[in-house]
Every structure is written in C-alpha cells, then in structure tokens.
Amino acid sequence: MTTTQRAGQVIERAIAQHLSIATAESLTAGLIAAELATVPGASAVLRGGVVSYASEVKSALLSVDEGLLATAGSVDPQVAEQMALGARRACGADLAVSATGVAGPEPHDGKGVGTVYIGWAYAGGSGAQAHHFVGGRDAIRAQATQAALQQLIQLLEQAGGHAD
Predict the structure, then answer these.
(1) Counting CB atoms within 10 angstroms of each CB, which of 19, 55, 111, 134 has the fewest?
(2) Are strands 46-51 and 21-25 parallel, antiparallel or unpaired?
(3) Would you say residue 123 lies in a domain?
(4) Taking the CA of residue 121 as centre, how many other CA atoms within 13 Å lie in the half-sphere pointing to its CB?
(5) Does the pTM exceed 0.70?
(6) Cα gap 143→138, rounded to integer Å
C-alpha cells in the first residue's frame, strides 16, 4: 500500500468514527501531517501537529520530561510516547502519533542510523513501537512516515470504544 493510500485510509476511518488526529514529529519534520493533509476531507479530522526537531521544543511544547531527554536522549521510546501524549493534549485530539529517530547520515544519542520510535496516544492508552529501517536519509524518513500512518490505522481500529 502506498503512503497516499494509507493516509486516505486513515482519514476515511477517522471521519467515519468521528475521531480527530494530531501528530508530533522529529525526524519526519511534518511529513506525516503533510501526507494526511493531501487527502480531501482531512480538515474534518486533522487537528494539527508539532514539528519538534530540537529537544527544547519537545520539552516546551509537548511536555516531554527534560530529565528523560537529558539521560536517554531524544531517540527513545518513552520520548516518543510523551511526544504523542503532548500532541494529543496540545491539539485537543482524540488520538495522536509521533515519530523520533535517526535518519542519518550519522548515529545520534547513541542510536544507530535507521532507529525510529513511533509513539501513540488515545483514550485507551499510550505507548511506542521500535523500528529499524534501512536506506538513506530520505528512505528512512519515508519509512517512518509509513509506519506512523500504519500506527494510526491500528489506533483507529482500537479506538472505537475508547473515543471519550
């Protein structure tokens, strides 16, 4: 399934379920929200997103714990989860997804190139999933975007009874 098809599926399901979406993005720098916004009707469910490339922005806008950022670095599953929680709150959305990781060309925060965490948050809970992508910078960012859209599809499948 292409990224565009996956984004269309997210928007279609969110509209059908009357659920709003937010994003928090680091390595993808807005690609997830941009892909969702290409779908006609996205404005009915896409609340907004935060591009938080810098740790200071993660902390200030998304309420990611400064101590966690100082000890674990920005490429961490707990950071991804806190980013999603922060985006959900900041945008007033029913569900949110986040992406943080290393697109390269060099390792970052002790994590290898291709290490990506996709975070998620909705009324039923929150968490993060580790991914290890291969390829150049653009390929890793594209794969992270695909993974985040797939996570949104999974959230929408789970969120039916937890949309409060």
Answers:
(1) 134
(2) parallel
(3) yes
(4) 24
(5) yes
(6) 9
Domain assignment of residue 129, yes or no:
yes
Task: Give the Å distances, CA to CA, from 116 to 5, 43, 83, 135, 151.
Answer: 22, 28, 13, 13, 13
Domain presence at residue 164: no
CATH number of the domain within which 141 lies: 3.90.950.20
Helix (H, G, I), strand (E, B) or coil at 76: coil
Who's near 134: CB < 8 A, 6+ residues apart?
Answer: 114, 140
Give the whole-angstrom CA distance, residue 137 versus residue 103.
Answer: 5
8 in a structural domain: yes
Digitized pLDDT (tens) for each residue of the chain, 164 residues in all = 899 999 999 999 999 999 999 999 999 999 999 999 999 999 999 999 999 999 999 999 999 999 999 999 999 999 999 999 999 999 999 999 999 999 999 999 899 999 999 999 999 999 999 999 999 999 999 999 999 999 999 999 998 755 44
How many domains would you assign to the chain?
1
CA distance 138 to 26: 14
